[in-house]
Structures are given as C-alpha cells and as structure tokens.
Design goal:
The protein is mostly beta strands and about 270 residues long. It has 2 domains: about 10-80 and about 180-270, no CATH class; about 85-175. Helices cover about 0% and strands about 35% of the residues. A hairpin with a 7-residue loop joins strand 7 and strand 8. It is globular, with a radius of gyration of 20 Å.
Length: about 270
Amino acid sequence: MSGRGQYRRKVLNIDGRILEYPMVGETKDLLDSQATLNPYAQSATQLYPLGTKLIEGERTWRYTKNGAGTPGPGTVLQTAVVHNAENDLDLVTDATTAVGAYTISLTSTTNAAVAADYYKEGYAFVNAGGGFGSAYKIKSHDALVGTTAGSIFTLYDPLVVASTAGSTLWGLRKNVYDSVIASAAAMTGVPVGVNMLTLAASYYFWMQTSGPACVLTHAAIGAAYKAMAGTTAAQIDPSVDNMAALSEIGWPISICNTAGEGSLVFLTLDH
C-alpha cells in the first residue's frame, strides 16, 4: 500500500525515559529495530527515524542528522539553509491527482537541481490553489532537474483535496532535523536545539530541544533576560529591545558572566 497504511506512533518507556516515534513506519518494525538508547552517543548510521522524541524528566531531545560541519558541544543549531529559494513556493502541478491519492506530480523550476529523496521526511505544502493550507510529510521523491515535468512525490498521507494541474502550487522543505548546522550570526534558518558533544559531519545524534542545557554564551546574560540566537554565530546573547532579527531559545537559569563559557539555559524549542 502507498503512503502510511497502518502506521501509527508508539510511546515506549525505556529505563525511565519515553520515546515517541514519528508516524513513518510500521509499529512492529520500529520496535524490532530499536537500538540501545544513549543520548550522549552519535553514529554514522541512522538508528531512529528523524524527529524521534526522547523525554527524560524535564529534558527533551530529538533524533537529528548533523550537516557538513563539526560543531563543538553547547552550540546553538539551526535548520539547514533552503536548498534553492525557488523550491520554497510555487512548484506547478503538472498532472492532476485525485482526493485519496498518495502522490503528486510537480514541474521543477529553472534553477532547481535537487537529488532524489533530498526532501525525504520533510514536507510538501500547498501554498496556493486548491487545497491551500495543507501540508504532507514526504515518503520519497524523484529528482528535480531543470524545468522537467513529472517529478513524483510520494506522501505518507492521502490527499484531502485534489492536486490540480496548472492551478495547485506546492512548496517543499527539508525535515527540520535533517542536516542541521551551527546557527549563523545573521540567522539563515530557525534555531532547533543544542548539541551535547562535538559532532562528526553527517552523523546522527540526539539534539536537546527543551529543559536545562549547557549553551555556549557570548555575552553575559542578566537575570530576567531571554537567551537569544542571531547575534553571534553558534552562541547566545541576552535579549535586547529590538529583537527583530533574533530568535529566542529559552531562559538562562544559571548566568554566565564570561564570554566563551557556558550558561545553563532552560530551552523552550520543543513542546
């Protein structure tokens, strides 16, 4: 069967921890393939679905793939930069697919050059036309090349509104936990968490997203100030009056007074 079929999320208690799997596989297969759980480990091979949620008391992590960099511990991490701005919006539907279908057929844009499955486990969303506001998780897809039509995207869920040739326009985005990078001084993505160890390029790891975490700090943060990303690369700074270009990641609960050291921050990047 195309799409998710009988997939459902399963919550497990493991040594006092809770795992919540994304709905991207058969429950039995997820349980049978369960790896030894160690939030302080990383691996070259993928052990869990991206975005798997690990909860331990007041702390939360997400299973994540690192990008090409090697950030040290306590680094503020952000989503991957958009592969090509033209893939954000307005990819044209070139063949109508009906309600209940698990595939859409898109025409690539002039400058797009995206390998097959680049957006796997990410999202396709309708940004204009019939079905506007819908977003679907991507199971697999063909490559996008030049202005070639007929790139097939297979979804986990069936369409609730038909994707109509010539009128339904789609946008694409990678999974937010796929190929994360150290945050830039001028943010090029959304902050998603903090790593607890030095990461190897393209390795899989557990990224902390909420609760107390040690975060590299650039400037002393006073009591009642928020911890913000978007001023200094990979580090946090205190909130300021004009925060238009900054992104809040949490609240300091142990204040660092020396640049280049760590503050204990209660992260608020997950729910």
